[in-house]
C-alpha cells in the first residue's frame, strides 16, 4: 500500500523526506504550484517574443553565454544541453537517492521561479509515481553549476533516452516509459537548464548519509549502554546533574537515554558496593559528551539539508513582474552547493566519531585486564581466538573512516574554461558518507556482538529490561560464540541490521 504526499513547494519536512527515501509514496502537487509554474513559463516566452537576450534561454551555456541562439533552434539547444551534459560515470545511484533527488527537483521547480511548463514537471512526477528509476551514474559532478551531469541523466528519461530501472531491471528509457503509459516530451526554451541546474543530487546523497547516520547513532547508543554493563561499568557518569551544569543540549538528551537503558540492571546492582574501579575508561564514561556532540552536529546538518531540500537552486531565476513591469530573469549562483558540502563534511565527522568510539569499546571488551571478562570474549582462550581479529576489522574500518572524513569542501578545481572557477565538491562530500556509514555499521555491529557476549558471561545476573530485549534481538541473529567458527557471516548480518536501523528497544 502506498502513502500519499502532497509536495507543497517550500514546506517539505524531514519526515516527508524520510518517507520518500524509504519508498512506497505517491506524490502530488497542489493546483497553485501548477499555476505558478505556467506563469513562470509565460515570462520566458514573453522574453523570447521580445527578442531580449537572456542566459540559458536564447544563449549558449557557461563560457558560451555570449553566443546568441536563433529562436527556431531553442528546442534543439535544450536537447543538446542534456545530451552533452550526460557524462556521468560509475555505478548507478541507489534507488533511495534517486527518489529523493527527483522529489526535491519536482518540489523546487514547482515553486515557480524556473520558467518551466507544468506539463514537464508533471511528467517527471508521473515517472516517480510509476516507480521508474532513471539510471544516474554516481560520479561526474563538482557541486556547482549544480549537479549538471547526474541531473542530465535524470532528464534523459523525460524524452525517452538512456536507461530506466523498472521492477529491478534496466530497460531502454523509451521502452520503460511506454510500459508505464507515459509519453516522452520535448523540452522548450530554458527547461533543460532548469532541470539540470540545481543541488538536488548532492542534497539527496547528503540526506541519504544523514538517514543512515541516524540509524548508526541509535544503534551505537544501544551498543554503548550494553558495553557498560558487559564491562561492569558505572552508571554514575550519566547522572543528570553532571550534564545539566555543562548545558550542552545533545549531551543532556543522550545521558537521559543511557540512564533509561541501564535502569534496573542486576549486573549493575552486583558491583555497587566494593567496586575496585575508581573510574571507567573514557569510551564508557564520556559517552554522553561524545555522542551528545555528535547528536548536535547531526541536527545542525539536518537543518541545512532541509533548507536546501526546499530551495530553488537553478539558474537563471524567473521572477514575476510587479507594478506593471514585465517579469525579470536574474542570473545568480544558487546552484553552488557549498552549504551542502559543509553539511556533508559535518556528517562525515559525526559518522567517523560514532565508529571511532565504538572501536575503542570493542578494544576494551576483548582486553581481560580492563573488562574483567575472558580474554577475547571466548571460553578456552588460546585454543580459541574469539573476537581478536573481529577487533582488527573494526580498527581497519575506523582507520579508513579517518581518511574518508577529510573535508571535501576545501577542494576546488575550476571548470568551463575558468568561468566556473570555484566549486563546492559537495557531490563527493555527500557520496562518501555511504561508504563511511557502511564501515561504521560494521564497527557498531562488532561491538554489539562483543557486548552481548560479555552479558552472557555474567549469567545468571541479568542486564536491564531494555537491554535484555536488545540482547535477545542480537541472539536471534547470531548465537553465543562458544568456540571458534566462521564469524564473517555473523558480522555481515549484524552490520546490515545496524545500517537498516533494525535494533530498536
> Count of helices?
20
Q: For the largest sheet, list the strands in their spatial order.
A: 4-6-7
Sheet having the most strands: 3 strands, antiparallel
Order of helices and strands: EHEHHEHHEEHEEHHHHHHHHEEHHHHHH
Strand content: 5-15%
Helix-and-strand structural type: mainly alpha
Give Rg in angstroms: 27 Å
Tell me the total number of β-strands: 9
Average pLDDT confidence is 94
Keywords:
20 helices; 505 residues; 3-stranded antiparallel beta sheet
Structural commentary:
- By secondary structure, the protein is mainly alpha-helical.
- It has 20 helices and nine strands.
- The chain has helices at residues 14-22, 31-50, 74-85, 95-109, 118-129, 148-156, 173-179, 191-196, 200-230, 240-244, 249-262, 266-270, 282-285, 287-309, 338-366, 368-371, 388-404, 426-457, 465-477, 488-500; strands at residues 3-6, 25-28, 89-92, 133-134, 137-139, 163-166, 169-172, 317-319, 328-330.
- The strands form four sheets. Strands 4-6-7 form a three-stranded antiparallel sheet.
- Helix 1 (14-22) crosses helix 4 (95-109).
- The protein starts with a strand and ends in a 5-residue tail after the last helix.
- The model has no long low-confidence stretch (mean pLDDT 94).
Amino acid at each position: 500500500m502506498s502513502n500519499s504526499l502532497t509536495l507543497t513547494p517550500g514546506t517539505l519536512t524531514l519526515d516527508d523526506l524520510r518517507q520518500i527515501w524509504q519508498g512506497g509514496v505517491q506524490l502530488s502537487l497542489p493546483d497553485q504550484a501548477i499555476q505558478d509554474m505556467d506563469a513562470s513559463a509565460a515570462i520566458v516566452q514573453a522574453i523570447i517574443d521580445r527578442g531580449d537576450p537572456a542566459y540559458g534561454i536564447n544563449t549558449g551555456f557557461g563560457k558560451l553565454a555570449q553566443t546568441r541562439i536563433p529562436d527556431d533552434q531553442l528546442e534543439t539547444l535544450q536537447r543538446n544541453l542534456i545530451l552533452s551534459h550526460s557524462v556521468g560515470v560509475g555505478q548507478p545511484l541507489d534507488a533511495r537517492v534517486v527518489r529523493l533527488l527527483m522529489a526535491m527537483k519536482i518540489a523546487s521547480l514547482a515553486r515557480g521561479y524556473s520558467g518551466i511548463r507544468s506539463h514537464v514537471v508533471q511528467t517527471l512526477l508521473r515517472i516517480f509515481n510509476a516507480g521508474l528509476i532513471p539510471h544516474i551514474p554516481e560520479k561526474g559532478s563538482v557541486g556547482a553549476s549544480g549537479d549538471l551531469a547526474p541531473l542530465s541523466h535524470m532528464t534523459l528519461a523525460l524524452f525517452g533516452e538512456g536507461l530506466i530501472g523498472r521492477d529491478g531491471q534496466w530497460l531502454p528509457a523509451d521502452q520503460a516509459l511506454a510500459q508505464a503509459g507515459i509519453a516522452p516530451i520535448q523540452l522548450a526554451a530554458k527547461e533543460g537548464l532548469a532541470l539540470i541546474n540545481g543541488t538536488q543530487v548532492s542534497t539527496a546523497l547528503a540526506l541519504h548519509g544523514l538517514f543512515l547516520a541516524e540509524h548508526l547513532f541509535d544503534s551505537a547508543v544501544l551498543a554503548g549502554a550494553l558495553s557498560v554493563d558487559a564491562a561492569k561499568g558505572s552508571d554514575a557518569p550519566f547522572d543528570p546533574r553532571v550534564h545539566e551544569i555543562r548545558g550542552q543540549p545533545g549531551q543532556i538528551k543522550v545521558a537521559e537515554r543511557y540512564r533509561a537503558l541501564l535502569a534496573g540492571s542486576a549486573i549493575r546492582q552486583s558491583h555497587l558496593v566494593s567496586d575496585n574501579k575508581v573510574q571507567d575508561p573514557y569510551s564508557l564514561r564520556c559517552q554522553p559528551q561524545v555522542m551528545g556532540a555528535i547528536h548536535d552536529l547531526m541536527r545542525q546538518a539536518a537543518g541545512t539539508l532541509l533548507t536546501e531540500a526546499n530551495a530553488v537552486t537553478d539558474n537563471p531565476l524567473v521572477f514575476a513582474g510587479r507594478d506593471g513591469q514585465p517579469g525579470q530573469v536574474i542570473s545568480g549562483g544558487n546552484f553552488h552547493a557549498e552549504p551542502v558540502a559543509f553539511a556533508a563534511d559535518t556528517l562525515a565527522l559525526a559518522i567517523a566519531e560514532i565508529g571511532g568510539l565504538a572501536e575503542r569499546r570493542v578494544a576494551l571488551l576483548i582486553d581481560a585486564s580492563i573488562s574483567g571478562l575472558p580474554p577475547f570474549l571466548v571460553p578456552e582462550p588460546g585454543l580459541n581466538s574469539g573476537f581478536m581479529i573481529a577487533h582488527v576489522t573494526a580498527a581497519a574500518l575506523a582507520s579508513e573512516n579517518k581518511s574518508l572524513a577529510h573535508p571535501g569542501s576545501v577542494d576546488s578545481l575550476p571548470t568551463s574554461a575558468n568561468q566556473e572557477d570555484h566549486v563546492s565538491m559537495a557531490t563527493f562530500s555527500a557520496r562518501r558518507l555511504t561508504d563511511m556509514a557502511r564501515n561504521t555499521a560494521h564497527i557498531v555491529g562488532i561491538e554489539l556482538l562483543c557486548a552481548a557476549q560479555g552479558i552472557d558471561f555474567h549469567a545468571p545476573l541479568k542486564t536491564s529490561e531494555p537491554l535484555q530485549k536488545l540482547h535477545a534481538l542480537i541472539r536471534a541473529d547470531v548465537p553465543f560464540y562458544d568456540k571458534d567458527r566462521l564469524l564473517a557471516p555473523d558480522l555481515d548480518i549484524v552490520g546490515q541490521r545496524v545500517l537498516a536501523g533494525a535494533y530498536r528497544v
